[in-house]
């Protein structure tokens, strides 16, 4: 709910323009001179051509009495038509360039943003709803790119055009020029004033519209509840208020639009009228020596009428920039967010030193699945240090989430290759936190996690995470086929390798029974499969990547005995030879684990094998008898 609320949120209108921020954004356009240069060049050309065309009008009008007799007259007409055609060509070029620039900018910002999102650590996601991030990358990016591209065009074209018209008027007759220019400030002010209000009321309409849509939705979907609680009258009251507000905003917007154009047109006419009045006087006094022809008079009236369009455009872009300022801040903020979990300079240095060697070694082959033993050669780590992971050790690890209380305090644990560690204990005890720390999704606040005795922060992050195979409680399957989902574990894998991985984890049987086998579409999130089946597919995916450390949060939802057995046997394959951490919910997993840790309040309360812990008659015994025994009973009843 809060996600969608964020998606639809409208920005506050900033009355002060943050020019520094906008410059930063406009600078992105500079990186695309292929589009920016022709855009600016044609904008200037069009402004110049439109002014020149008015001058040509004047020459034609002034030469009208020589019609047909003079060769230059025909030349004027030809030149006039040619320039008009060129202008149209220019308009085509700049619309093309602005469109290109806008789309490419959006593409770049979106790509950079996506890149950043991939790099950022889990803690970043803890504090930001998904909907918020999605709207940054979709609507915000598009909106900003449009403003940058079309804004560049409007600002360049508008300011060049206004300057040229003003210069032409002043050049023709400075007194007339000044009189006409006096209309400019009120014209600019009125344009801005109306544009701003029209924009605000249009946004209000959009806001109410989406709330009304949501209202319809709720009312239709919740109709049973509404009726049983007799809430119809209250709902109608709320709804009526919304539609009334929307009506108000719509009426206001219509009134603003209806007033805007006549007022601006009147101001435009005023400028023309002033030009006509003063120009008329000048034409009449021509015999006194002033060179002011009828053609010049028409030219001045025409020039005076040409202010409206560029001023209107510039006022609009200004209001749009004010309205999009918050979006700009958010996107720039996202792009500027530095990941907190990343490789330090020492690691980068080592990786860089190793790069030439790695290039010589690379033979393009990916490692085969070494599912049953770790005797197969593991590809070298990019930093030249051992790639084989023999131990994972928590040494005095203390951890808390951002602004949260301490979750782990001086936590110690050593796990060796081949060991399966089952974590059990009350919910909120810290099991997931331990696993997230192993994966370096978060880093210890103090103490360290060591891989073969070396702090994992001193190894390349990407390499380390590529050694992890993770299956979550609610495994995520992507849109696409079963095969594609398994291949996600290692993109270069062949179909045979995929099927082999599926066989090893006992997923092959059920997959071939699906209507289209490996090509069955799973639907976004894997909606068409049971949780157990999704876990089996995730095992195959994890196994295909051939991880050295395997991490799993077992599904808690009831799984039928048959799938449970499949999963159990699949797990044995995945666990073999690896370091495994399992947040265990199922008896079968716990029984077979090398070591069971009872985690409570961020500490290891008990540790040992199933038999040892039962014999102790402590926490584990208690958990086992209450929770696990019940589970076993249920399973027995289901059989
Ligand atoms: P378990 O897996 O044993 O249920 P967790 O590791 O999920 O326990 O949680 C341990 C403690 O950390 C709990 O108090 C929980 O509220 C807190 N916690 C877990 N995840 C986060 C998070 N992303 N941000 C803040 N606090 C969290």
From TrEMBL:
Residues 392-626 form the ABC transporter domain. GO terms for cellular component: plasma membrane. Its main location: membrane. CDD domains: ABC_6TM_exporter_like. The chain crosses the membrane at residues 35-53, 73-95, 147-170, 176-194, 259-280, 292-311. It is found in: Cell membrane. InterPro entries: AAA+_ATPase, ABC1_TM_dom, ABC1_TM_sf, ABC_transporter-like_ATP-bd, P-loop_NTPase, Type_1_exporter. Residues 39-323 form the ABC transmembrane type-1 domain. It is a multi-pass membrane protein. One of its GO terms (molecular function) is ABC-type transporter activity. The keyword Cell membrane does not apply. PROSITE patterns: ABC_TM1F, ABC_TRANSPORTER_2. It holds the Pfam family ABC_tran. Keywords: ATP-binding, Membrane, Nucleotide-binding, Transmembrane, Transmembrane helix. Signal peptide: none annotated. This is ABC transporter ATP-binding protein. It comes from Termitidicoccus mucosus.
């Amino acid at each position: 709910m809060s996600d969608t609320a964020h998606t639809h949120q409208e920005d506050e209108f900033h009355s002060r323009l943050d020019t520094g921020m906008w410059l930063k954004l406009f600078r992105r356009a500079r990186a695309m001179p292929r589009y920016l240069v022709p855009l600016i060049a044609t904008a200037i050309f069009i402004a110049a051509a439109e002014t020149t065309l008015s001058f040509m009008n004047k020459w034609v009008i002034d030469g009208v009495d020589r019609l047909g007799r003079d060769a230059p007259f025909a030349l004027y007409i030809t030149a006039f038509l040619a320039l008009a055609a060129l202008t149209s060509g220019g308009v085509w070029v700049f619309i093309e360039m602005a469109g290109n620039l806008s789309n490419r900018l959006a593409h770049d910002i979106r790509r950079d943003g996506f890149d950043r999102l991939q790099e950022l650590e889990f803690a970043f996601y803890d504090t930001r709803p998904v909907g918020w991030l999605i709207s940054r990358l979709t609507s915000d990016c598009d909106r900003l790119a449009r403003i940058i591209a079309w804004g560049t065009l409007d600002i360049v074209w508008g300011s060049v055009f206004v300057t040229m018209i003003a210069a032409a008027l002043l050049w023709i007759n400075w007194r007339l020029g000044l009189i006409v220019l006096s209309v400019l400030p009120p014209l600019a002010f009125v344009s801005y004033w109306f544009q701003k209000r029209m924009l605000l009321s249009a946004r209000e309409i959009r806001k109410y519209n989406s709330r009304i849509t949501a209202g319809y939705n709720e009312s239709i979907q919740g109709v049973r509840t509404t009726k049983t609680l007799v809430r119809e009258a209250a709902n109608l009251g709320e709804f009526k208020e919304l539609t009334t507000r929307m009506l108000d905003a719509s009426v206001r917007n219509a009134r603003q639009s209806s007033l805007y154009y006549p007022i601006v047109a009147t101001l435009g006419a005023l400028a023309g009228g002033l030009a006509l009045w003063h120009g008329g006087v000048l034409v009449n006094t021509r015999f006194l020596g002033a060179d002011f022809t009828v053609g010049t008079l028409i030219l001045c009236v025409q020039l005076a009428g040409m202010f409206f369009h560029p001023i209107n455009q510039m006022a609009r872009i200004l209001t749009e920039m004010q309205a999009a300022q918050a979006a700009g801040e958010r996107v720039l903020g996202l792009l500027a967010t530095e990941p907190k979990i990343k490789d330090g300079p020492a690691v980068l240095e080592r990786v860089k030193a190793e790069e030439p060697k790695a290039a010589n070694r690379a033979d393009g082959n990916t490692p085969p699945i070494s599912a049953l033993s770790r005797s197969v050669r593991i590809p070298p780590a990019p930093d030249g240090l051992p790639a084989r992971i023999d131990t994972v050790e928590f040494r005095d690890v203390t951890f808390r989430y951002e602004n949260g209380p301490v979750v782990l305090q001086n936590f110690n644990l050593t796990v060796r290759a081949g060991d399966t560690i089952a974590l059990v204990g009350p919910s909120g005890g810290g099991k997931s936190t331990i696993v997230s720390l192993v994966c370096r999704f978060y880093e210890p606040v103090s103490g360290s996690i060591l891989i073969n005795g070396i702090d994992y922060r001193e190894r390349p992050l990407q390499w380390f995470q590529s050694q992890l195979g993770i299956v979550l409680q609610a495994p995520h399957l992507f849109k696409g086929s079963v095969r594609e989902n398994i291949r996600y574990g290692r993109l270069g894998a062949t179909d045979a390798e995929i099927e082999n991985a599926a066989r090893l984890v006992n997923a092959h049987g059920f997959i071939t029974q699906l209507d289209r086998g490996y090509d069955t579409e799973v639907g976004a999130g894997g909606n068409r499969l049971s949780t157990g089946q999704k876990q089996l597919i995730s095992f195959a995916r994890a196994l295909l990547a051939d991880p050295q450390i395997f991490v799993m949060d077992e599904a808690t939802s009831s799984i039928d005995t048959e799938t449970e057995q499949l999963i159990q046997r699949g797990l044995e394959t995945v666990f073999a030879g690896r370091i495994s951490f399992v947040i265990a919910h199922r008896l079968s997993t716990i029984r077979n684990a090398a070591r069971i840790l009872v985690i409570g309040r961020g500490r290891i309360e008990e540790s040992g094998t199933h038999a040892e812990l039962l014999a102790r008659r402590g926490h584990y015994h208690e958990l086992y008898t209450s929770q696990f025994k019940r589970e076993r009973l249920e399973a027995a009843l289901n059989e």
